[in-house]
Amino acid sequence: MTTQQTNINYDFLQNNEKYKLLVDINEKLYINKNPCNKLVFIYSAPKVGSTSIVSSLRIFGTDKISVIHIHDEEMLRILGRVTGVTINEIILFNKHLGREVYVIDVYRSPVERKISAFFEKIGAYHFNNKDEIVNKYNVNKVITRFNNIFSHIANGDHFMDKYNIAIPDRFDHVSKYLLVHENGIKYIKLRLKDSNEWSTILTNIFGMKIVSIKDYESSNKPIKDLYKKFKIAYKIPFNLLDELTKCKYLNYYYSDQEKQEYIDQWAKKTAPNTGQYTSEQYNMYEQLSIENSHIDYIQLNHYMDEGCSCKACCMKRAETATKLIMGRTIITEIDRIVHSEAKNELLVKRVEHANKINASIANARHAPQIKGGRKDFNREMSSVVSGRKIEIPNVSKYLNL
Ligand SMILES: [Zn+2]
C-alpha cells in the first residue's frame, strides 16, 4: 500500500545550534563519507528482526545504498555522544541535503519480542549477574520474573509512535508491507512474520536485486541453554494472553484471521493467571536494576555485514552475495562480512597467490632444457618478473587495508 503526502517541515533548520549538531552527527554516523545517494534508516525498536534487513541491504546495495541502524536517541548519546537532536530531525536533515531517504521499521509478534528483549539483557540488567551464571538458573525462577514484568517490557511501535507520520487506516495484508510517502521520504513497515517475502518486497521497493538473509542469532551465546529451556517450558498465563488480544499494535498489523491464529497458537500453551508488577512497582524495579547493575551491557557483533567499504570487505561481500543469489547455504561464521576477518582472509589469499607464483618460478628454474636449443634462463626470468609483478608478501602492508 502506498500513501502520499507532502508538507515538509524544516523548522528546526532555523536554529543555528541545531544545524551545527546535525552536521556533526552526520559526520559521526559516517553519512557524509558515503557517496551513495540512497540513505536508509533502519529505525526500529530492538529485537524485532531489523538486523537482517541491515545486512541484506548492505550486502546487495553496498555501492548504492547507505544503511544506518538506530533504535533510539539514547543510542545516539552513547555511540555519538550527541544530545539535543532527535532521530526524526536527522532523517529530515538528510532529506533537506538532497538525499533519497528511506526509513524502515519491522513489526514482531508481542510474546516473541518480549522474550527476546528480556533475554538480551537478562544478565547485565534483570539478574545483575554474568550471563554464564544466569544460564544455570532455575528456569521457573526466570519465568516468574518474566511474567511479573511482561506487560511493561518491549512495548510500543516506532512506525506508529515515533515516525510522526500519517498512518494508513489499516495494514496492507495483500502486499504485506506499508509504504508511506511523507516529507518527501519513504517510510516502510514490514512484519517479521513475512520475512520469507522480504526479498521480493525489498527488490520491488529499491529496484535492485536484494536477497533477504536470516537474522544472525549466535548459537554460542552464553545464555543459550537457559533460552532453550525457557522456550520449551514457557506457558503464558491466561490473563496475559487475554491482555494481548486487546493490544492495538497486534490488532493493526495482524488481520483478524492472523491474530486468531496467533492467539490460538499460544492458547495451546497457557498457565493459570498470574500477578504482575503495577506501573509503580515496575518503575521501582527499573530504578533498582539500573542502580544495582555493575556489568556493562555489551552488544556483540551481530551483523552479517558490518558495512565496511574497504577492498577486502567488498570482495568478501561479492562472494557472499553470489552464494545468496545462487541459493547456497550461508554459514554466518564463514560468510559474514566483518572487517577484521575479511582483511585476514584476503591476506591469506594473497600470500597463497604469491607462494604459487614463487613456486612456478622455482619450477621454471628447474625445468628440463628444451631439445635443440639452450634455455635462456635469464631472459625468461626477466620476462616473468616484468610481466607479472612479483612481490614478497609484506604483512604490514596488507594489514593496513
Ligand atoms: Zn573492511
Provide a concise account of the structure shown:
This protein has 401 residues and is α/β, with parallel strands linked by helices. 49% of the residues lie in helices and 10% in strands.
What does this 3D model show about the protein?
The protein has helices at residues 16-28, 51-61, 73-80, 87-96, 110-120, 122-126, 131-134, 139-149, 158-161, 198-206, 224-233, 238-244, 248-253, 256-267, 279-292, 311-325, 332-335, 339-365, 377-387, 395-399, and strands at residues 2-4, 38-43, 65-70, 100-107, 178-182, 185-191, 236-237, 270-271. By secondary structure, it is of the alpha/beta class. It folds into two domains: 2-306, no CATH class; 308-401, no CATH class. It has a six-stranded mixed sheet with strand order 1-5-6-4-2-3, sandwiched between helices. The two termini are 44 Å apart. The site of zinc ion (ZN) has 6 residues, from helix 16 and helix 18.
